[in-house]
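Treating backbone geometry as a discrete language has practical consequences that deserve illustration. The sequence in question and its structure tokens are set out directly beneath this paragraph.
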Amino acid sequence: MTTDKLLDKGLKLPVMEEFYSIQGEGFHTGEAAYFIRVGGCDVGCYFCDVKESWDAKLHPAIATDEIVQRALTHPAKAVIVTGGEPLNYNMNYLCEQLKKNGFKTFLETSGSMPLSGKWDWICLSPKQNAPPLTDNIEFADELKAIITKDFDFSWAERYADKVKPGCKLYLQPEWSQRDNIMPLIVDYVMQHPKWQISLQSHKYMRIP
């Protein structure tokens, strides 16, 4: 079977990096997990702090079974799939194998591509230059809006009105603008308490 067909079936994935660490953002902040960062992104946010993940050609496809086996060498039974944009690829097989081995599966996505895979938790982080597909919004367990300017609040509210009841709502300052934007976020959350603040705590802890 060719590499393209293996990619189509999700039997191989172009992984930029894998590592065991602590979730630093959103609802599961502080929890140990195995991270799988998939290469390739169709969104290309100017503030992305992992731009080296964008070009999938720089990250050779590796066997999904090997990824699962490496995850099994760590004590936490949680896997976070991030990117890049993971939904550029078929995530069904990866999730099936992780589930067979007792893992909980977590997805971080912009929602710009059709959903695949079975997930215990989906963090949707919508981007203005490539908005999420309408069908993906209802599956979000967590909505995380990155705030770079004051007009980003209205963008965040647009999706807060569309997610399912009980979805966690987070506003997160873009890292390079955190000192300037944080006072605005604090004030906004105080005025709109349905929102919570998410920080990139892993950067403060100086861990991956």
